[in-house]
């Protein structure tokens, strides 16, 4: 059988969970319709618990409808863009569903963005209405973008009375002493109050017809492989499909009975679609946190008997060392999932020794509505991010995208399915580079280099852009990093290629040592360790010690920033 036929035969289906269908049934519903159905069935259940403050599904539904009515009165219409410049809080959820109810689309902005980055996203997305955290208002104002409406809100608005002062002070500390504008300044600037709108308007929004396959629901921005960030166009159908696919692949959750920890940022596709929307799609209770304070999170897991925990690799590395991790009985959780970056095998082994539980890896991108692969619950493989979820077709093509590589060889992952984006916002030329048609279906070039084994499990190697060419050899930065992580005194590492006219790229390793090893281990010792564990052409030629490494919004080591630094140097 030729490679193409092997991929198209979907060998991974033989390893699906026992009750998982090969194809999920996807309803022709919009996100608001999906939410309404859950509210009808579970109205009295807590939708969210925010530092002890409970909000039922019925109450949340009323808040959403009141806010949608307010937006409509402000002139927000179907097709408009509403920006959410917020931390995790109940207002995020209310604004999210309220905007979608009107057929508007949301674009989530990272709270750590500079005013220049905020300006780019607001301008590019055509947002004229922004729901903004009060402590972020100064950055919004400095962006200089002309807006029709700014709706300001405070995290304290939904905190229990005893925690309101504490919440404000903790946030100010976490966000560099940022302060909210005074009521006088708000009035002078014409800024609206979120709470006043909720109180003023009845829960009677206009009825809007939403074709789930045509109406855009979200414009989440990717980090940008080159140049400025760009938005993936996600429809209501993309979002609803992903929920049906995940529930089919992991048929372990009972509707209206689960408790999910929600501390991953909602501005990121993982937190927004998997944690937030995924929980509300099945009537779960979200235990919501604005900042990831692990002591509070672990205490809440025990108090509310959490059944699902979603994290990123750096979090599990931290928890492996954290003294209070054992206060949670991790074995009782139905799912402990990890995504957004590669999970090192050493982290998995340490976790299993410490907790007696398993971490299940997944894979996805903003362009795949967060997920395309997951680990089968009954048969995960260490080092693999799993198999394609229902309704997803996957294959591996050579680096030039001209043909399929044999099983076991590395190439670029390409994907097709109902969760694949429609293209990039305002960038038809860029979409053409990343989307192509095959067998009458649209396929996405992911830019990720992977391989598939005989059973259909996939293994990540590197981003295509992070492939290092040294004297004609292909070197995966991740391979070198994995060896560095095996050194007992190396805490973190990032590897990049530095342009060199003689060899193509020199391999440079940025290394963070454990505190007790600093000043005691030399660059030469790190290189010698690599020589013993790597082929000669993979050994770093340059080692630079750092106190810390630049990170992305979800805690990944930012190779892009390291590469830019190395090239400038």
- Assembly type: single chain
Structural class: alpha/beta
Broad shape: globular
The profile of the biggest β sheet is: 5 strands, parallel
Strand order of the largest sheet: 4-3-5-6-7
Number of helices: 18
Determine Rg (CA atoms, Å): 24 Å
Given as residue ranges, the uncertain stretches (5+ residues, pLDDT < 50) are none
- Give me the count of strands: 26
β content, as a range? 15-25%
Q: Taking all residues together, what is the mean pLDDT?
A: 91
In helices, the fraction of residues equals 25-40%
Q: Distance N terminus to C terminus?
A: 49 Å
Could you describe the 3D structure shown?
With 569 residues, the protein is of the alpha/beta class. Helix content is 33%, strand content 22%. The chain has 18 helices and 26 strands. The N and C termini lie far apart (49 Å).
Feature tags:
single chain, alpha/beta, 5-stranded parallel beta sheet, 5-stranded mixed beta sheet, 18 helices, 33% helix, 22% strand, globular
Short characterization:
33% of the residues lie in helices and 22% in strands. A five-stranded parallel sheet has the order 4-3-5-6-7, sandwiched between helices. A five-stranded mixed sheet has the order 12-13-14-15-16.
């Amino acid at each position: 059988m030729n490679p193409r036929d092997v991929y198209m035969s979907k060998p991974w289906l033989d390893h699906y969970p026992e009750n998982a269908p090969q194809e999920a049934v996807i309803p022709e519903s919009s996100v608001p319709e999906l939410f309404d159905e859950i509210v009808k069935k579970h109205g009295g259940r807590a939708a969210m618990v925010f530092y002890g403050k409970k909000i039922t599904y019925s109450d949340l539904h009323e808040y959403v409808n009141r806010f949608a009515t307010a937006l409509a009165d402000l002139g927000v219409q179907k097709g408009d863009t509403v920006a959410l410049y917020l931390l995790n809080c109940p207002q995020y959820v209310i604004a999210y569903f309220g905007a979608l109810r009107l057929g508007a689309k949301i674009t989530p902005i990272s709270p750590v963005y500079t005013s220049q980055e905020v300006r780019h996203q607001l301008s590019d997305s055509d947002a004229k209405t922004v729901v903004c955290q009060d402590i972020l208002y100064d950055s919004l104002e400095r962006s200089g973008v002309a807006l029709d409406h700014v709706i300001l809100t405070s995290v304290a608005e939904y905190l229990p009375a005893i925690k309101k002062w504490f919440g404000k002070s903790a946030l100010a500390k976490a966000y560099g002493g940022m302060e909210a504008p005074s009521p006088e300044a708000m009035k002078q600037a014409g800024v609206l109050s979120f709470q006043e709108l909720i109180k003023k308007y009845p829960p009677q929004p206009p009825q809007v017809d939403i074709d789930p396959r045509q109406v855009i629901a979200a414009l989440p921005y990717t980090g940008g492989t080159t140049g400025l960030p760009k938005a993936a166009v996600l429809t209501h159908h993309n979002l609803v499909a992903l929920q049906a696919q995940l529930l089919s692949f992991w048929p372990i959750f009972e509707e209206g009975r689960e408790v999910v920890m929600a501390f991953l940022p909602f501005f990121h596709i993982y937190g927004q679609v998997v944690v937030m929307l995924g929980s509300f799609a099945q009537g779960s209770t979200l235990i919501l946190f604005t900042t990831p304070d692990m002591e509070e999170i672990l205490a809440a897991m025990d108090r509310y008997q959490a059944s699902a925990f979603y994290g990123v690799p750096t979090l599990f590395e931290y928890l492996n060392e954290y003294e209070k991790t054992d206060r949670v009985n991790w074995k009782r959780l139905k799912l402990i999932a990890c995504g957004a970056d590669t999970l090192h095998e050493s982290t998995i082994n340490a976790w299993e020794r410490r907790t007696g539980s398993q971490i299940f890896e997944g894979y996805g991108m903003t362009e795949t509505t967060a997920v395309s692969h997951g680990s089968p619950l009954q048969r995960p493989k260490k080092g693999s991010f799993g198999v394609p979820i229902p309704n997803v077709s996957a294959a591996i093509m050579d680096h030039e995208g001209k043909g399929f590589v044999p099983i076991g060889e590395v190439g670029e992952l390409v994907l097709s399915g109902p969760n694949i984006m429609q293209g990039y916002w305002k960038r038809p030329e860029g979409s053409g580079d990343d989307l192509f048609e095959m067998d009458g279906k649209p396929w996405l070039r992911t830019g990720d280099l992977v391989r598939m084994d005989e059973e259909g499990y996939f293994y990540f190697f590197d981003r295509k852009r992070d492939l290092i060419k040294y004297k004609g050899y292909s070197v995966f930065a991740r391979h070198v990093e994995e060896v560095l992580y095996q050194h007992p005194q190396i805490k973190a590492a990032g590897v990049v290629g530095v342009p060199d006219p003689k060899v193509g790229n020199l391999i440079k390793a940025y290394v963070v040592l454990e505190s007790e090893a600093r000043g005691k281990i030399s660059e030469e010792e790190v290189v010698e360790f690599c020589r013993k564990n790597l082929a000669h052409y993979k050994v770093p030629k340059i080692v630079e010690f750092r106190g810390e490494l630049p990170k992305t919004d979800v805690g990944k080591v930012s190779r892009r920033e390291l590469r830019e630094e190395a090239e400038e140097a």
